[in-house]
Amino acid sequence: MRILYQFICILITSGTFAQTVVSGVVLDAKNSPIEGANVYLEGTYDGASTDAQGSFSFETTETGTQHLLVSMLSYETYSQAGDVSYLKDLKITLYEALNELTGVTLTAGSFKAGDNSKASVLKPLDIVTTAGAAGDFVAALQTLPGTSTVNEDGRLFVRGGAAGETQVFIDGLRVFQPFNATANNIPTRGRFSPFLFKGITFSTGGYSAEYGQALSSVLLLNTTDITDQEKTDISLMSVGGGLGHTEIWGQESLSINANYINLAPYQVLVPSDQDMRWNKPFESISGEAVFRSLGDKSMFKLYTGFNHSNLDIAQADINFEEFVPFSLKNNNLYLNASYKHFFDKEWTLTTGASISNDTNDINVLNNAIDSKETAVHLKAKMGKSFTNRLQLNFGTEYFVQDFDESFGSAGVDPFQYGFDDGLWAGFAETDVYFSNRFAMKLGGRMEHSALLDQTTLSPRFSLAYKSGEKGQFSLAYGDFYQNPWSENLKFDQNLEAEKTSHYILNYQYLDNGKTFRAEGYYKNYDGLVKFNTDMPGFNSVFNNNGGGYATGLDLFWRDNKSIKNLDYWISYSFLDTERDYRNFRERATPNFAPKHSFSLVTKYWVEDLRSQVGFSYNYGSGRPYNDPNKTEYLSEKTKPFNNLSINWAYLLSQQKILYFSISNVAGFNNVNGYQYADSPNDLGFFERRTIRPNADTFFFVGFFWTISQDNNSNQLNNL
Q: Is Membrane included in the keywords of this UniProt record (predicted)?
């Protein structure tokens, strides 16, 4: 009996000695105690809650290596592994959990549309229902601050930058010729249908290190990943028509569309401008296709687009008694393939390639110019989310550009010239979220051009601080390089890359359907290409001695909640810029840069009439032009630009929509600039003629008919 008693005592004593105390204190990032946090050993029932002082203490019989977990609502879970005997007198700090809905975002210099981002200020519907845009995403983007309307051109001019300083990407891959070919002083349009894209990011500056070869801005277009219904779209317009179809096979789908445009009916209704005669109206046939294949952990997309356009026109020129004939035939083929794979442990691989082939057959006076450009973009990128506070992206890409051109005239053999370039780039960038209020993006980019034999380094940096529940500040800096344009490189390959540095300060306020943005910026230009002739040519002397600056303020306000059924936005831009480039004789404000730009866009839904009506008003102050009769260079200003457009969309049925719009309904007589004679007259004065738009008012009528399996869908909202 005595032996049994001693044995029981030994067991009790051993059990007592096996108890280990786990203790410590839990604090927040400001060293304030956290009450009510759960502290426990993973996989056991041993644990406790913290008291008002943040302290905890509990006993455990576990031995060896254990995982201590600390959890609390609104904080990130804390984990520590170690021998249980060392888990005592701990000082544990919990950090605020990141909230994607209310946390800070990096928004400096960037407008987003259709990507479900809380920073979005446009929706996909806006691209095609903005009065005056007529389905062109570039025209819709010109209602945003930071852009300048150059009526005779039609491309994107951003914050004092020329149109060639903006690059377009589809699914992260470069589009080398994003706009249709056109004649002088006739505005162009983008080549792509907005119906195929789910989201648009328009960066007016300070963009990611992933993208380069753009001095001013980038436009990122993302094609739709998955389609939810099979449908056939038929459109009939006053100037053409289109047909599209989407077919779905399980996790795969194919969308195709074709369009034909002929401006002959329009030119019958609207007489040609007195300075322009159409020998053959503008004609275009185009087609696009997107194939998608969704895997368990992957996504493959193949996009292709083809466009053929031609025109034959005669334009007045003050240096010629007769009209100058000009004809153009353009063929453009673009192919884009991208693949994305999601690995374990939060790794992501994105690869892709794009190729384009663009040919132009131009005849002006007795001269023939034939050009061909073939370009390729190869890209691979890896991404890793280490935690929800730290993400890393890095990758490499290679660009190939082969440009050939020939010039010939009557009785003379064509002369061949051009250039080839291979450009390699590597980039890395990390996003760090310190808290719901503070975030940072840090990255860099390296490029090497074989043609220029030059290597460049571009740091990129941005910060964001959430000042309140609905507002935040953002700050961005970056260096950006771009090779000289083809119009210069085809004559002289002994040039260097041009450079800009961007400095951006942004404030954004979001509140239940209301968005306010204010952004100030400064851009410094260095190494811009100059030449000493009227236009670049074989006899030009080129150099990189140009430079300049652009500074300004952009304001944006959108509200779709205050007034029932009304959605509107207001944009204003102030721009102060000067540059010395091309054949400028001194630093001056270029003719594509108005000092003040303003736009107002409205959309109103009339329930009883089953209609959406709206209008857009655009204003731009006078743009500079050079009067050779004056001693000051580029010192004169054109009259201000004004454009009022209206639109009406009527829902005939769930499957049929009638769309009607009028651009420049008020008939503003906008002046694009002036052309002066090359030589003075007998009195010693240079004569001039006024350059006006091709037509003052543009009518657009369309009928859209969608045949789908979903008869209850609101087609007006899907337009």
A: yes
Please tell me whether residue 312 adopts helix, strand or coil conformation: strand
CA distance 136 to 80: 55
Q: How far is CA 143 from CA 67, 120, 147, 586, 637, in A?
A: 56, 15, 8, 32, 23
Which residue carries 């029981």 as its tokens? 8
What does DSSP say about strands 231-237 and 240-249: parallel, antiparallel, or unpaired?
antiparallel
Q: What is the DSSP string of 520-584?
A: EEEEEEEEEEEESSSS--TT--EEEEEEEEEEEEEEEEEESSSSTTEEEEEEEEEEEEEEE-BT-
Confidence of residue 553 (pLDDT cuts 50, 70, 90): very high
**Can you say whether residue 434 is alpha, beta or left, with left for phi > 0 and alpha for psi between -120 and 50 degrees?**
alpha
Question: E-assigned strands of 343-470?
Answer: 347-364, 367-387, 390-409, 415-433, 438-449, 454-466
Characterize the bridge pairing of strands 566-580 and 542-559.
antiparallel
Q: Which two tokens stand for residue 368?
A: 């023939």
Residues 407-444 have pLDDT tens digits of 988 777 888 999 999 999 999 999 888 887 888 999 99
Which residues is 400 bridged to in the sheet? Answer: 376, 422
Question: Are 592 and 577 spatial neighbours (Cβ–Cβ below 8 Å)?
Answer: no
**Collapsing DSSP states into helix, strand and coil, what is residue 345?**
helix
Residues in a beta bridge with 613: 604, 648
User: Which of 190-199, 572-581, 635-644, 672-681: highest mean pLDDT?
Assistant: 572-581
Residue pair 35/54 in contact (Cβ under 8 Å)? The answer is: yes
Relative to beta strand 636-637, strand 624-625 is antiparallel
Q: What residues have CB less than 8 Å from 547, skipping those under 6 apart?
A: 524, 525, 526, 527, 528, 579, 580, 581, 587
